[in-house]
Structures are given as structure tokens and as C-alpha cells.
Write a structure and sequence with these properties.
heterodimer, A: 120 residues, mainly beta, seven-stranded mixed beta sheet, 11 strands, B: 112 residues, four-stranded antiparallel beta sheet, 0% helix
Chain lengths: 120, 112
């Protein structure tokens, strides 16, 4: 059974880089067939899809993030990562990594989420 | 991007009663392959979202048949029959027809 676990700092200063890692067990991220996503939940508000990575190289990012986001993957550790630059308080959210069955949704496995607060 | 408008914002339902949540999209979610790419998720308090329904009407593994998704075009519905205490949380629809994938604003389900 696949499991995902987010890790990273819970506090980031404004204008700095938010870096999170998702460690996957039970499924190889380099094998293909699944899409590996980052999704965030704003406090008291809704969900925003950040983007996905497929085959550790193909990515699609939400245009709302205006070029501030980049994903990377390390198949040796079976992890994929999120880097979000120039963060502001508006990036404060609960960040989830999730596996999707394809590019059109069906997120069947999620991490527990990690709360990241942007504050000085 | 495709906007998903969900209603109602909240529901209060007695155990054993039914609940209905709707989602309207800003454009048709019908792909030329005949699929309508709509998922439904439940986020229980303090937990990650859980997939309930995909491709409009397919229940995810382990989801009881009390949950039924339906719809077409731009209007989709999640029906919950015989509501139980464990059903509380926020329900979200999500479209997967085209990126960026987008979610509805959420519906909070509470039990009387």
C-alpha cells in the first residue's frame, strides 16, 4: 500500500524559499503510470492544486503561482520535492503531496499534510 | 481556468437522513472520449482529503454505496443517503478535464 509523508520547515520568512519533500513508500515514483502532486489548503478556505510531476521529469504548474514553483525528484530516495520562491503570508497553508492515477485527477493517496506558516 | 461553484456552503443533517451537494462548472467537463472528469473528496477534521468518487459516478475503493455521484455537462451532484456521524467534514468537488485542476469551495457537513 502506497504511503506519502511530507517533511520540511513549518516556518518560512517572507521573500524566502519554501522547500518541502514528499517521501513515498510502496510505489516507485520513477516507474511511471502515476502523477505526483502538490496541493495546498488555505486556513479556513479551500484547496488549491499546485501542480504535478510525471515520470520524474514532466511537470505542470498552476499558472496562478506565476513561475515561483518548481518540482524535483530523487528516484534513489523515492522522494519528490516542492520549491516555492518569494513567499508571502498568502502562501501560509497546509501542504499535501498526493498521488493521482492520471493527469485528470483521481487522487487516491495523500500525505497527512504539513502546515507551513510564512512569517517574520 | 475552469471555475467550480459548489453549494450549499454548509449542511446540517440528522443521522439517517440524506444530503445532497452540487457543483457547477464554468464550462462543460465532458471530454471527447465520453468521460466527465469530476472527483469528489471528503476531508474529515484533521485529516487529508479522501477520494470518494471519480469520473463523476465511480466510487473509490472502500467507499460505501451510500455515496453516489452523478451529473453531466456543467452540473454534478454528490448524494449521501443514511448520513452517519462519520460523514462529517468538508466535501469538495474537483475538475480534472484540463489543467490547472480546480476545486469547488467546499461544503461543510454537520450532524444534528
Amino acid at each position: 500500500q502506497v504511503q506519502l509523508q511530507e517533511s520540511g520547515p513549518g516556518l518560512v520568512k517572507p521573500s524566502q524559499v519554501l522547500s518541502l519533500t514528499c517521501t513515498v513508500s510502496g510505489n516507485s515514483i520513477g516507474r511511471g503510470g502515476y502523477y505526483w502532486n502538490w496541493i495546498r489548503h488555505f486556513p479556513g478556505k479551500g484547496l488549491e492544486w499546485i501542480g504535478y510531476m510525471f515520470n520524474t521529469g514532466h511537470t505542470y504548474y498552476n499558472p496562478s503561482l506565476k513561475g515561483r514553483v518548481a518540482f524535483s525528484a530523487d528516484t534513489s530516495t523515492n522522494q519528490f520535492s516542492l520549491n516555492l520562491t518569494s513567499v508571502t503570508a498568502a502562501d501560509t497553508a497546509l501542504y499535501f503531496c498526493a498521488r493521482m492515477m492520471g493527469s485528470r485527477g483521481v487522487a487516491d493517496s495523500w500525505g497527512h499534510g504539513i502546515l507551513v506558516t510564512v512569517s517574520s | 481556468e475552469i471555475v467550480m461553484t459548489q453549494s450549499p456552503l454548509s449542511l446540517v443533517v440528522a443521522p439517517g437522513e440524506s444530503a445532497s451537494i452540487s457543483c457547477r462548472s464554468s464550462q462543460s467537463l465532458l471530454h471527447r472520449n465520453g468521460n466527465s472528469y469530476v472527483d469528489w473528496y471528503l476531508q474529515r477534521p484533521g485529516q487529508a482529503p479522501q477520494l470518494l468518487v471519480y469520473l463523476t459516478s465511480n466510487r473509490a475503493s472502500g467507499v460505501p454505496d451510500r455515496f453516489t455521484g452523478s451529473g453531466s455537462g456543467t452540473f454534478f451532484t454528490l448524494e449521501i443517503t443514511t448520513v452517519e456521524a462519520d460523514d462529517i467534514g468538508f466535501y469538495y468537488c474537483m475538475q480534472g478535464l484540463e489543467p490547472p485542476l480546480t476545486f469547488g469551495g467546499g461544503t461543510r457537513l454537520e450532524i444534528k
